[in-house]
Amino acid sequence: MEPRTSRRRVLSLASGLAVAAAASPVAASRAAAAAPARAGGPGPLLIRDVRVFDGLRPRGRGSVLVVDGLIAAVGDVPASPRHRVYDGGGRTLLPGLIDCHVHAFEGSAADALRFGVTTELEMFGDPAGLPEARRRRRSTAPARRADLWSAGVGVTVPGGHPLQPGWDFPRVTADTDIDRFVADRVAEGSDFVKVILENGPPPPRPPLPTLTGDQLRRVIAAAHRHGRRAVVHTEKLELSLAAVRAGADGLAHVFWDVEGGPDGVAEIRRAGAFVIPTLSVVDWGAGAKDLLADDRITPWLSPTQEYLLAQEPPDRPGRPDFLGIGSANVRRLHAAGVPILAGTDAPVRANANGVSMLVELGHLVRAGLSPSAALAAATSVPARAFGLGDRGRIAPGLRADLVLVDGDPTTDITDARAIAAVWKNGRAVDRTPPPE
Ligand SMILES: [Zn+2]
Q1: Protein residues within 5 Å, CB atom, of ion ligand 1
Q2: Model confidence at 6: pLDDT above 80
């Protein structure tokens, strides 16, 4: 989905939505059935001599065969004269990354793809392009942008968060027929339902109106009746607990108001909800500054990415240490077995689509995930949580969305920044940034 969006609109989004063991080689096997619609390709591609991280764990060195946009075999794959051979030179091959919390605008999905993010999950956005996004992501035709799944219009109240999204959209009032409201979102193409539960940032900022507990339960129940997951925006522990008690499938941020005790963490675990921490949105631009000083990154940034990363988030005197508190909560949730999914909230608060995932991976490792667990949080874990059956792992039959990096990010996560190549639907991506 690519709604026409100016830089002003990007800024408006950014402010309005701002949040108050190496195993033995795998045996080669043939492509499974249940594959996406195939488009004719340029012939089989053999990516040889790569260390494979398959989305779950490191699998040792081997090759990956790509046929018609899909992974056909992994492991000891003998080269044939029919193959075009790409020599991986012992680099590490990852599944294409999935950013689980973005907001899309013109050019954002192309920016994402150039940094190895081959799939984006939009957590509130303009529904205009959703049918087209759905058509595109089912195809294995050549693509110059990441695939998109989206909540479309989120569920919030008049005067509630987000305050200035840059366009008008329907909101829930006391008179709203909630089942109808959710049915309208599904009809617009929403792949899941985003629910806003936000009663305002910490004082002295004023409180915000938000959904009542009853409305929250009814929205989530309606989403489930329509076969959609419900993902809830909360930033506070009490609201996060209210969301999971009401049946939320996932939380769009980790809570960073207070450190959660064992009871709260256990309750989220029992509820079976996943959490998309988005720690990159509470580092107050530190991760962005780090990217702008990294020569593995800067040659590939588009002007829009540079512009977004250079934003100085407005200071909030006396604000709590959101990053420290949020990271402590991620550590506890992960230790308790709550699925952790990587997401950036780009383009909010000095995050840019695609490249900021490289910041979030670092935050997740500092919060206590192993590098492999952080990479899983950006690949196989979200694929499972959101039911994306054709991607998220390097396995026969899945879409050939792949990222090749120098070094070994399963031991040093920052190696994920050293991107050597990206393939989308089995085709190499031109990483040259657009002029403007
Ligand atoms: Zn967001």
Answers
A1: 17, 123, 345
A2: no
